[in-house]
Amino acid sequence: MFMALFAVVFISITIIILFGCIKNFRTVVQKRILIIVLGDVGRSPRMQYHALSFAKEGFEVNIAGFDNSPLIQELQDEELVHVVPLSEPPVKPRWLPRLLFYLAKTIFLFLQLIIIVLWKTSKHSHILVQNPPAIPTLAAAWLLCLIRQSHFIIDWHNYGYTILSLTIGSKNPLVRFSKFYEGIFGRMAAYNICVTQAMKEDLKKRWNVTATTLYDRPPKRFKSVDENARHKIFLKLSESYDVFKSVKNENTTETRFTTTVSGRTTLIPDRPALLISSTSWTEDEDFSILLEALQQYDKMTEALTLPSLVCVITGKGPLKAYYQDIISKTDFDHVEICTPWLEAEDYPTLVGSADLGICLHTSSSGLDLPMKVVDMFGCGVPVCAIGFSCLHELVKHDENGLVFHGPEQLAEHLQELLAGFPRNQSSLDKFRENLKNFQEKRWHPCWKETFFNPVFTKK
Hints:
Radius of gyration: 24 Å
Distance between the termini: 51 Å
Structural class: alpha/beta
Number of helices: 17
């Protein structure tokens, strides 16, 4: 059976290569790039920012990926950007062994990616691929580069083998193969970029892969917001989520946090503190830490004269229902939790409306940084973030936020930062002031200086 499957794959690849070579014979390459995201493009902000930046530099951009969520508005309005939709593999049948399903899924994605790209797009000068997922993305991208004589670029967000190890264990042969596989294709790339200095050093040490660190930076839409913008987003969300509704007044001019008097919007003096966290609800974020910290905070609220809390956790993912069930069974007196899925254009405004951000991202490799913190910092919102090896490259403890290592320490940080809120916000104000320099460093200028100019303008 495996020999027959191998023969089918071999013949398919041979036909694809011949078809691709014939189709692209004598094709003149214009300023055209292919970005491969073997995932939901709408939930891949960094790759969307790449696409928008290339378009700003006059490149025609194709993005190959799953078209499940809407793109950011700037990309929807950009005529030079075109999504090449891919189909997700079918759900695993109960009768099919997991290893065989994984093999079939890999072949399905590999062949689909190559065939659709060759059929629906013209020749590209460069192909930029997001890693992870590594299998089969890196192999498919490399083969496309071979067929079309394109330059192969990998953007390392994390390691695929470390994510795989979370579900099947680090000693599984498939994890060891994935580790070897990533190293091979990393060395075959014409150019590698990564998200941290720690990852750059690890790539060199682990696989002798030379990479350039391109830090995530917020686009301009992540910015500080005024009371009017807060009021509008709170009114909109109050239509679907009770935590944003006024508890004193049922009229439509007041929310839980803001009110309008004589046409002027102000913050309510005795409002609760608004916490925000964003997640993809995966194994590398343990939200039981936040829930336990909130329980401890809740018990101390009256004794320490602390404000009530509204904690908004945005995003969607495989563990969302699991945590929603736990939240629904947890009793709070002074804490409310809301888990909405926001429209792409509402998310930056809500982040900018928060008083404090919470980050529970730990990274399967310990070498990448949470983009949600980048978004919060872009909005001037301080953060409490769980500590791991390279977090200091983004979160500076007691400078732009606080680092914690467990629920007890997070509860202590919340008490420290929110004591006397909203009248006394001295600690939060100190962090907000220190974030102003970060807010000046936006994605496109940093992207152009660090990545685009060295790779695309060198002679």
